[in-house]
Protein: Thioesterase
Amino acid sequence: MPHPAAVLLPGTGSDEVFVRSVFAGPLAAFGITLTTPAPAPGAAVVTGGLAALDAAAERAGGPVLVGGISLGAHMATEWALRNPRRCAGVLAALPAWNGAADRAPAAVAARHSADLVARAGLTAALAASVEGVAPWLAAELTRAWRRHGAGLADSLRAAAAHPAPELADLAALEVPVGIAACADDPVHPLPVARAWAAALPRAALCETTLAAFGADREALGRAAVLAWLRARG
Structure:
């Protein structure tokens, strides 16, 4: 039985280039074609992401494998809950919270970054944000934030304000869900991924580490794809 096409969305402040670097190889190993829509600009980042999934499913003419990283995982799961017959499964990498974001670390970081960009400008905010972080992450932030340009602050705020699916709602999602988490990631806490896995009827969780992810972007993608294959049974 052939695998469905995949459509994956980026996380907050990230872009389709990064998503592709994480998932293209692991999906290609199973013959799965990948589409990675660019994030919609500014405050439209969430509505645009959901619309991109609608458009991709329409083009595919059948169920699609949806997913993403962090915010992208939230949006894909939200879309799957609304479109169970159009969804063949979910690849949820680094879910950051469930329900309202409140004081979730990823949301706090996004709001802080948005305030910094609005106050100091993109160049100064980027310089402050990459100071002391791993070189690979600094390079990713530099490219993606510059691509977001003037819409970055609004995009970050919209992402931080958008609720993830509630755990009670996840219990209604019958498609297989592969969840990937980094055991040592304080921004995307492992307990969140474990709570998602426990709430979903057909889910598996595979863990990796930030060190492995930093050395090989595909480590996260492999974990999510492996988890999805396990969830399929």
